[in-house]
Specification:
Length: about 1600
């Protein structure tokens, strides 16, 4: 197969070059330890105490001056995240060899770009390798160290154990060893002795060296007659009990960590770079160290802090991805402790629990539960993996009934661990890997002729493996499992292993006989819903927090249209904690969302992976053998319950016909007497928790408890107040978790205050199983009776129709909220608590929402009670006897005199426009005064004031001029399409005049603007990739990657067809009149290492500009920003939640994202703490309006500042909030030609305004004593809390975490940008290509270049394309002017934005993102003729990876073989021919042609609005795999079209020598009849209209 040592030596040469340099400067750190030797001097230099992975210890490691017992900060270590590169290699025959070890090492090193490094290139984020037990090696070491011969394999075990740093110089290490030894003997395990593991730490950087543990191996054997499984169970108990006992002695994450303790394998890992693993552990260099399998892992963490134990592989697996539902998974697993008992461990089960911990990463928790299920139950490893990461089984016609039944049954036992994941696992009987249901992580594998399998995150990791030795090239598909069974010595196909497991039990029969369907139960019950009394409806609406706005703007559109209504221009209303009006508790919670470390999901186009169906009620024993009692649960298909379903639950009891427990509920009243005060409220909380626990437990005389509890507030009225439903549900849910009763019953809510999608999202997020919003139903029915529905909809609706539509809209909205966090199933979302509380006191959070982040305190129970009193007074006024009560109108959505405070007021806007248009300083000062007053009512920065010291002030003339300050200003990303050409160009001209920067937004830019003062300096790259070409990127000063948008983070966007004019379509490379979709995620960014790749791509596309990453403020944005900085972004923008938008659902506008003040301060603190701040520029935006805003942003850490809403107002915007309707009356947010004529804005208006802002900044700087803004960055000591004007809610705020000076966290680190990133462009192959293509670039002389390529050659051809675009513009060069022929394995992003005139051919295969952004060039990938001659059939194998041709605008691509998932996603103009694709092919495609000569995966053409695809479908399989939402299926029905497709295939054959293509050409008359034409409806309509117009014109 390979020459292992030669491979390793050659393959590692480039990657380890820096280590040679490093070793020359590492003499001071060098401590070369062999066997028992360890120099005492070096040990004494180590940290004097252990290094737990905690905020406190991280601060200690940075010599921080902060005492967390007295002062809080925004950074929290628990927010850290990581992504990775993963691989495995195994010999199918279980033959140990040195070859496996060497290839594993090479694989790890060749994925080093998927790992991370901090400030020091010799300090890695973590890497490791797990090997099958090296039996011959261990026998030698046992003989050398203990003088004993080990028994046969399976009867001995070797552990690799970390001990705390320097613990050998104290008694700690001896104490830990004594604990392990004692516990082993108690379990009948014979301890042979301890072996110090020899290491060489000379190459380690400062961080890993300071925290380096002592590593020793424990050798043990069986001391009693038992089988291997029983021995393994004893070893598990020893390890678990030792960990518990040491933790009690030393605290959590003390540095004592058992990497592995098993008979089958051993793990070597640490806080290392991939290159360092085999250098550090000398065992791995020993020629006697042999293995038949290996898992390898390279970690990319968002931090730079040391953590040896968090490196992977773990005990049974390694993981690339993120568990988005971790908090819920951990809570559920903890509470299952009350019902779990292992038949094999019996009473000892308690020693294995809890299986999850806050002190472990998401991967660590997953591994712990996986180990528990495989060693403490009868489930096999593949079965346990199937349970934890199930494929999308609901509504999947491609699954057998047996598999569906297996998944449905096991959904009753455990919720999915949901999120993007590629998990590789082994127990030495099996080795394998599985992929999440949506295929969001890459995984490719080879099978060789000499019985080896190699699977990894990318191909090319074994560069010297010749294609002639490979028999299979394939990929791991979404939801599928790759599995090697060493007993049968073969790869077991996914279908075979899953069908075998599904057939083990009669799951289908059990489900049929024992599961209870709520819908069917309700229908059979016939229980009538309760009558409605409209006479008191308005009173109850006021009681439960309704307003006329919410009725008209939210409920009515949901009831009539069946979907959430849209709004625009963002949210400028007060935070709940700052509001002087009563607010619901739900308003304090902000939805978390995925950005960078994992992707959001498109819940519309990718609904096949989403599900709201949940089993609820009593769970079975997870560790018991699967049996019929496990599925005796209630199935709720829609969590927003109908009135009839609630009536059935309340009034009926389901009695099982098979003798099971059935289903019975009890109703718990959540109201309490009016005037009971806050004590009465708390007493009511205590009462409902106790009542719930008692009802579930059952009466003392032995009767069984209920299976469900219903928390109801229906008794609320004149004399009784209702607990907020979220408070009631959260308190009961967490009480039952604490008592470990939560898995024993369902929690339902019959409540009046749930009305909008955010209300549902929060109540389900905190554990509710089903909610009946009875007041929302009553409100709709009353509006119908009053005629409002008919007046709005212009048609009649029945009450049932309205309620059905409302439930449908709520369900869609809930799916969207889940998808923002990358969560696919409601079962996983329930209890996941993916929120931050903003302005809610800890006493409330700890009692009702345990584990939720609340960083600035605020509203306590007393303040909540006062708001409840005010709601009650609105409903039942104490001093009014009027019967006709009106529903309040509080101005939450639109400014209203006397209503909720808004930042944008009529008075402020008038003064701003006067100031901008007349250059009036007085008008600007009045605008500034009004705005700053509103800030105090609306924003966090309004709660701050400057600390001026008159003695330190300086004369104004000493402060840097306005002309320097405005260079730090930028306009927000408003796309050409969302706003008019006139408005877009006005902003660009204005910013160019002052030396600031304008931003294109995601709509591209007219190339004519590249050469004049209309050019936007910032070119945005968003998920839709509209207008992104080589020329576009080359003409930028900064390229901004939009990860999220402040007004709607985690969501995509849609530009309706009526806004896609001829001009807009031309710049977006799409079709006029056809609507455009921006996906929620970037389909090339599913993780932090993916973002690093895109940053690398864009830096290659414009080597002389900056690459910026736009993030949105949320808890943990600072740690994400640290990861972004480590991914080599030059610039980071942190946007606030209150930014504007052209269109978004109100749920996202109001309920998602955080103020920029929180995000900016956290990012500044985290970057400084990590020592990363000096390498990036930091910007913020989000309703910045005045010089005061800018000055506060500067003091909190920003050096650049973005403006959007205010410049629009200067150009004429009057905040009609109708941007999404194309009816903007002032010509800004419209493409209507008549309305655009009304635009009166001028660049000077924007310039005047920004100069006024800068002048105000100068005045503040003078008072503070700063001459330059650079001096002022991060100086938070000049800010303090302004207590003036605070009220009963806001007086509890604690803003001190924002004001902690970042410099104090890490005194040695920089606090603003002083240096740049090293992008490594000098090492790119493109430099050589540019030299060799010089004649072609300068004189258009054709040139042919021959070379080799490997997976480390990423983004090949992009710098060459930059040279073409800068010299020749978008026209490029004549076709085939530069031809590059390559052999090998192309790295990621091969041919990114390849320009016209360049042809790149690969003889071999390629990785993910091949042809991404193709800009007129040509690409081909095909196996070599020699391999094909040897019998290799390319059409049966995968030759290119995922997301190929993403955002391609022109050019051609030919692939002889299959492609992965999301082929041609958002293609808008390229021709692509391929021989098979995975799921989601042609997703969001808007133009171009795709020809597939083989099968496709599921969900083809989802969101496809343009272009045409031709699919060869001789067996008629394709129609069931196509998403028919936007497309129709036709045949090739004209000779012209038949000839056109023939020529496409002809080109494919010419480029790739495709055998399948050649066969089709030879039999074209017959084959052409077997093609299906995929034709988008809108695209067809536009083409027909265009054809008709041309005919009429002729």
């Amino acid at each position: 197969m390979l020459s292992s040592r030669a491979l390793t030596r050659q393959g590692l040469r480039v990657n380890r070059r820096f280590l040679a340099r490093r070793s020359q400067t590492s003499v001071a750190h060098k401590s070369f330890r062999r066997a028992a030797s360890r120099p005492l001097g070096n040990s004494l230099k180590r940290l004097p105490s252990v290094l737990p992975y905690s905020t406190e210890q991280i601060l200690k490691s940075r010599d921080s001056k902060i005492d967390l017992s007295k002062q809080r900060i925004l950074y929290d270590a628990k927010d850290e995240k990581d992504n990775c590169g993963v691989g495995l290699i195994a010999n199918l025959k279980s033959k140990p060899s040195r070859h496996v070890v060497d290839v594993a090492d090479e694989m790890l090193v060749r994925m080093s770009h998927r790992g991370g490094c901090g400030c020091d290139p010799a300090s890695g984020d973590g890497a490791g390798m797990l090997f099958g037990m090296p039996d011959s090696f261990m026998r030698l070491k046992a003989k050398e160290n203990f003088g004993v011969d080990l028994p046969e394999m399976g009867k001995y075990a070797v552990a690799n154990i970390f001990f705390p740093p320097a613990s050998d110089t104290r008694s700690i290490m001896g104490d830990c060893k004594a604990i392990v030894t004692r516990l082993a003997k108690e379990r009948g395990v014979n301890v042979l002795g301890w072996r110090p593991v020899p290491v060489d730490n000379s190459m380690l950087g400062k961080e890993p060296l300071n925290s380096e543990p002592i590593t020793e191996q424990l050798f043990v054997t069986m001391d009693k007659a038992q089988d291997q499984r029983a021995f393994e169970q004893d070893l598990l108990l020893v390890r678990k009990m030792a960990e518990t006992e040491v933790q009690e002695m030393l605290g959590p994450e003390s540095g004592f960590y058992v990497n592995s303790l098993t008979t089958t394998h051993i793990t070597y890992k640490g806080q290392l770079t991939p290159e360092q693993v085999s250098q550090y552990y000398l065992d791995l260099q020993d020629p006697d160290f042999l293995s038949h399998l290996a898992l390898v892992h390279s970690r990319f963490s968002t931090n730079t802090f040391p953590s040896w134990e968090r490196a992977q592989p773990i005990r049974m697996m390694c993981h690339n991805g993120e568990i988005n539902t971790l908090r819920g998974n951990k809570n559920w697993m903890y509470s299952r402790g009350g019902i779990m008992e292992s038949p094999e461990f019996g009473d000892d089960t308690t020693h294995l629990l809890p299986a999850t911990s806050d002190n472990m990463s998401d991967s660590g928790n997953f591994d712990s539960v996986l180990e528990l299920m495989t060693k403490a139950s009868s489930r096999s490893l593949p079965e346990a993996v199937m349970m934890m990461i199930p494929e999308a089984w609901q509504d999947n016609d491609n699954l057998s009934e047996a598999k569906k039944a297996f998944y449905e049954f096991n959904s009753c036992v455990m919720e999915p661990w949901d999120g993007p994941a590629m998990v590789a696992f082994t127990d030495s009987r099996y080795i394998g890997a599985t992929l999440d249901r949506n295929g969001l992580r890459p995984s490719r594998y080879y099978v060789t002729k000499d019985d080896h399998v190699v699977l990894s995150s990318e191909i090319g990791v074994c560069p010297e493996l010749p294609d002639s030795e490979v028999t299979i090239k394939h990929r791991l598909e979404p939801g599928k499992m790759f599995l090697v069974d060493f007993e049968t010595q073969r790869i077991v196909p996914d279908d075979e292993i899953k069908e075998q497991i599904a057939a083990l039990k009669p799951y289908g029969d059990w489900i049929e006989n024992h599961m209870i369907d709520l819908e069917k139960w309700t229908a059979a019950s016939g229980t009538a819903r309760e009558p409605m009394d409209f006479a008191v409806t308005n009173r109850k609406l006021n009681l439960f927090g309704y307003s006329s706005e919410k009725l008209e703007m939210l409920l009515l559109p949901m009831a009539v249209g069946g979907k959430e209504p849209l709004g625009s221009m963002g949210n400028d209303a007060a935070l709940a904690v700052l509001s002087e009006h009563p607010r619901q508790v739900n308003d304090y919670f902000k939805q978390l969302f995925a950005q960078v470390t994992n992707p959001p999901i498109d819940p519309i186009r990718e609904e096949i992976v989403m599900s709201l169906v949940c089993p609820v009620g009593p769970e079975g024993n997870l560790l018991d053998d699967p049996n019929e009692t496990h599925c005796q649960r209630l199935v709720v298909k829609s969590p927003v319950l109908s009135l009839e379903e609630m009536a059935t639950l309340k009034n009926d009891e389901f009695k099982a016909t098979t003798g099971g427990p059935g289903f019975k509920t009890t109703v718990i009243d959540t109201t309490f007497p009016v005037d009971a005060g806050v004590d009465g409220m708390l007493a009511a909380l205590e009462r409902i928790c106790d009542q719930a626990a008692e009802a579930i437990q059952g009466p003392a005389h032995g009767k069984k408890g209920v299976q469900g509890i219903i928390l109801s507030d229906k008794f609320a009225g004149p004399d009784r107040m209702a607990l907020p439903s979220l408070v009631a549900v959260g308190a009961v849910h967490h009480h039952l978790i604490g008592t470990k009763q939560r898995p024993k019953a369902a929690i339902f809510a019959e409540v009046g205050d749930c009305k909008e999608v955010h209300d549902f999202a929060t109540i389900f997020g905190y554990g509710c199983d089903g909610v009946c919003p009875y007041m929302a139903y009553e409100a709709m029915c009353k509006m119908n009776a009053d005629g409002m529905v008919e007046a709005t909809a212009k048609r009649e609706f029945t009450d049932d129709e309205l309620m059905t539509n409302y439930r449908k809209a709520a369900a869609k909205g809930l799916l969207k909220v889940m998808s923002k966090m990358g969560i696919s199933t409601l079962q996983s979302y329930k209890g996941a608590q993916v929120f931050e509380a903003v302005g809610l006191a800890e006493e409330v959070v700890d009692r009702c929402f345990t584990g939720t982040t609340t960083r600035i305190q605020g509203t306590d129970f007393e303040a909540l009670y006062r708001d409840m009193e005010r709601f009650h007074d609105d409903a039942f006024p104490r001093h009014s006897q009027e019967d006709d009560i009106l529903v309040r109108s509080d101005g939450q959505f639109h400014w209203r005199d006397g209503g909720e405070a808004h930042l944008n007021t009529p008075g402020g806007m008038v003064n701003l426009q006067v100031a901008a248009r007349t250059n009036s300083r007085d008008a600007y000062r009045e605008f500034s005064r009004i705005t700053n007053e509103q800030n105090q009512k609306v924003t966090l920065r309004g709660q701050l004031k400057f600390q001026f010291d008159p003695s330190k002030g300086i004369p104004l003339e000493e402060v840097e001029p306005v002309s320097e300050i405005v260079r730090r200003f930028a306009t927000g990303a408003m796309s050409l399409g969302s706003i008019s050409q006139e408005a877009h160009e006005t902003l660009a001209v204005a910013m160019n005049q002052i030396g600031g920067r304008s931003n294109t937004g995601e709509g591209g830019e007219d190339p004519l603007r590249f050469k004049d003062n209309r050019r936007s300096s910032i070119k945005q790259v968003a998920s839709g990739r509209f207008g992104v070409t080589s020329e576009y990127l080359a003409n930028s000063d900064q390229i901004q990657i939009k990860m999220a948008q402040g007004a709607k983070p985690g969501e995509g966007g849609e530009l309706p067809g009526f806004k896609v004019s001829q001009y807009i379509a031309k710049n977006r490379h799409t079709t006029p009149g056809v609507g455009l979709i921006s996906p929620p995620p970037h389909h090339d960014i599913y993780s932090i290492e993916d973002l690093a790749q895109l940053i690398h791509d864009l830096k290659n596309a414009q080597p002389h500009g900056e690459v910026s990453t736009k993030l949105v403020s949320e808890v943990g944005v600072g740690v994400v920003a640290a990861g972004v900085a480590k991914a080599f972004s030059d610039h980071i923008l942190v946007s606030g939640h209150d930014g504007g938008t052209g269109a978004a659902a109100w749920t996202g506008v109001k309920g998602c994202g955080l103020p920029w003040e929180l995000g900016l301060a956290e990012t500044q603190q985290t970057l400084v703490l990590n020592g990363l701040r000096d390498r990036i520029k930091l910007q913020t935006d989000g309703q910045l309006k005045t010089g005061r805003d800018v000055a506060i942003a500067c003091l909190l850490g920003a050096e650049e500042y973005g403006f959007a809403t205010a410049p629009l107002i200067t150009m004429g915007c009057i905040m009609m909030r109708k941007c999404h309707l194309n009816t903007c009356p002032v010509g800004i947010a419209t493409q209507d030609e008549e309305l655009r004529k009304k635009f009166t804005g001028q660049p000077e208006h924007v310039v005047n305004y920004l100069f006024f802002v800068a002048e105000e900044v100068r005045e503040i700087m003078a008072k503070l004593g700063y001459r330059t803004m650079e001096e002022m960055i991060g100086q938070t000591q000049h800010l303090e809390v302004n207590r003036k004007g605070q009220h009963y809610k806001s007086r509890g705020l604690d803003l001190s975490p924002l004001l902690t000076p970042a410099q104090e966290l890490n005194p040695s680190a920089g606090i603003f940008n002083t240096t740049g990133q090293d992008h490594g462009l000098d090492k790119k192959i493109d430099n050589s290509l540019i030299v060799r293509a010089k004649d072609a670039l300068e004189n258009k002389t054709p040139v042919v270049i021959e070379d080799v390529v490997n997976n480390l050659d990423r983004t090949l051809g992009t710098m060459l394309s930059y040279e073409v675009s800068k010299r020749h513009g978008g026209e490029g060069l004549p076709d085939d002017t530069i031809t590059v022929n390559l052999k090998g394995h192309a790295g990621q992003s091969f041919g990114f934005t390849l320009a016209k005139g360049i042809t790149m051919n690969v003889e071999g295969d390629a990785n993910d993102y091949t042809g991404k952004g193709l800009s007129g060039g040509k690409i081909s990938v095909a196996p070599s003729p020699e391999v094909i001659k040897d019998g290799f059939k390319p059409e049966d194998h995968v030759v290119v990876g995922n997301v190929c041709l993403y955002g391609a605008t022109s050019g051609k691509a030919f692939f002889s073989g299959k492609a992965g998932e999301r082929f041609c996603v958002r293609n808008s103009g390229a021709l692509a021919v391929v021989e098979g694709v995975g799921d989601h092919g042609c997703e969001y495609m808007t133009g171009g042609v795709m020809v597939c000569l083989g099968e496709t995966g599921r969900n083809f053409a989802a969101g496809m609005s343009g272009g045409i695809a031709y699919i060869y479908d001789p067996d008629n399989k394709f129609p069931t795999r196509c998403n028919m939402g936007l497309v129709g299926l036709e045949t090739i029905d004209t000779e012209a079209e038949k000839q056109e497709v023939f020529e496409y295939i002809q080109e494919h054959v010419a480029a790739t020598r495709s055998g399948v293509g050649q066969e089709m050409l030879e039999n074209w008359d017959e084959r052409s009849k077997q093609f299906v034409k995929v034709f988008p409806h809108d695209y067809k309509r536009v083409l027909e209209e265009r054809s008709k117009a041309m005919e009429e014109a002729a």
